Amino acid sequence: MELRNLCAEEDRWRALSSWGPEPPAPPGTSWRALMRRALRLAGRAARMGEVPVGALVVDSEGNVLSSAHNETESLRDPTAHAEVLALRRASAVVGNHRLGGSVLVVTLEPCLMCAGALREARVSGVVFGASDARAGAVCSCLEGLDYARTGGAPWSYGGVEAEDCARLLRAFFRERR
Ligand SMILES: [Zn+2]
Q1: What's the pLDDT at 149?
Q2: Quick check: 111 and 13 in contact, CB under 8 A?
Q3: Which pTM does this prediction carry?
Q4: Which of 147, 170, 154, 162 is nearest to 121 (CA)?
Q5: Which of 79, 86, 158, 164 fits 55 for a cystine, CB–CB 3.0-4.6 Å?
């Protein structure tokens, strides 16, 4: 069996909901509200023909430092995932490649590349929506945030507005088939 057939396309994006206690959100906002914002970015990506994933970086005071959506097609750049673009922009805003204290909010469980970038940026946490049964590198396929076992891995919390995040992805790929 080919690896890519291990799970059906429709089952790839999952709205898993068995997460532990919700980490406290920065003052004046909530993970749900931030995820709704990331979802709007993902919707914009879909309209551009980009895989609908949106991300933003929020600091410990609740300021949204940056926002982004996938742009791999428009930029012809395989690394232009929403998470990488959001980290890059947030670093430019704060003038530091370390983003300690900040949290990345993203509509889809990050892939291995993005998990590595999140570690490099030293974000405090990652909040995501839908899980990715084929490429999710936070908990679905591997534990990419924690790979080095050196401590200091960002915390993660998934399942926020996950059904809407997954629905957007399913609809996008259904239309393209
Ligand atoms: Zn990625």
Answers
A1: 63
A2: no
A3: 0.93
A4: 154
A5: 86
